[in-house]
UniProtKB/TrEMBL annotation:
This is T-cell receptor alpha/delta variable 29.0. It comes from the Eukaryota. It comes from Lepisosteus oculatus (Spotted gar). It holds the Pfam family V-set. Gene3D superfamilies: Immunoglobulins. PANTHER family: T CELL RECEPTOR ALPHA VARIABLE 16, T-CELL RECEPTOR ALPHA CHAIN V REGION.
Amino acid sequence: TCQWSCQKLELLTHHYEIRLCTCMCGGDRVDQLSDALTVLEEGTVIIHCNFSTMSNNPDLFWYQQHPQQPPQYILHMDSYNTYNSPAFSKEHFSSTLSMVNKTVTLKVSAVELRDSAVYYCALRP
């Protein structure tokens, strides 16, 4: 079974809300580092997740979910590459992975209203 944890992100100019969610399943785990983040429209936000796994080459995923919609795959990373969904440009959504620090980030550049959503960080060992 998985345990989900969600955090809130507000866009100050229009009071939009983005929720950031993470999950723990079995011995593998991802954790959101911030309780809440604030960003201005057109600003940049970096969402941090810590992860724990016994795998030497895990895949880390980011998803975005709008109300009453299924989660949409943004991108995933392994130790070598980042793979963006065609619907989510590398200029707008990018990520970094540190196997040493066991952290993964999602950077959203030029934040827009359409970025108001729930964000999920996920791990595949």
